[in-house]
Amino acid sequence: MMKPFLLTLALAVICSTATFGQTEKGSKMLGGTGNLGFSDGISVTVQPSIGFFVADNFAIGSALGLYYYNRDDIRQNGIAIQPFIRYYIGESMPIRPFVEASGGYMTSKTKYSYSGNSFEQKYNNGFFGAGVGAAYFLTNQVGLEAMLYYRTSEDRGLINYQGNSRLGISFGFQIYLPGSSAK
């Protein structure tokens, strides 16, 4: 009961502090994305991220991806490190489009169970992705975002190497913290 109150209070304090340009050099962004899927089993993905604005509108950062999937006969979990670069287009306004490029490495383990037999297989994937999106700023320091992305990877660990490419959409939020050089 106390945790939701403290979280709400913390967000209120962050949102009510003095406002600065969201994407100025020296600012930071903290946030992430997540999704929950039920189409063929249950899948959960959580991806916290941190970024630093090295120039106005231009951030570099990294995300840590955590993935879990469970179906009657398959259970999979994985972890990924995903450095990214992001550029925001336009001036300060409630909706800011951006472009992003990322790459990284994922390792995962899959356990298969059939007719009382089971085995595990490990996968190691390098991947690259790019996307276009928009951040909707609820305040100068809190934004909701959506991004349409394309990702390609090579799955190592399979008997035959195979590529995996997909188009997707992600939703998330960011908290923008002014840096010492933000005015």
Task: Provide tags for this entry.
183 residues, mainly beta, Porin, eight-stranded antiparallel beta barrel, 1 helix
Question: Can you describe this structure?
Answer:
This protein has 183 residues and is mainly beta. It has one domain (24-177): Porin (Beta Barrel). It has one helix spanning 2-16, and strands spanning 28-37, 42-55, 58-71, 74-88, 95-114, 117-137, 142-156, 162-177. The protein has an eight-stranded antiparallel barrel. β4 (74-88) and β5 (95-114) form a beta hairpin. The longest helix is centred in the N-terminal third of the chain and has 15 residues, at 2-16. Residues 8-147 form the Outer membrane protein beta-barrel domain.
Spatial strand arrangement across the major sheet: 1-2-3-4-5-6-7-8
Taken as a percent bin, the fraction of beta residues is: over 45%
Figure out the total of helices: 1
Question: What CATH architecture would you give?
Answer: Beta Barrel
Output the radius of gyration. Answer: 19 Å
The ordered H/E elements are HEEEEEEEE
Tally the structural domains: 1
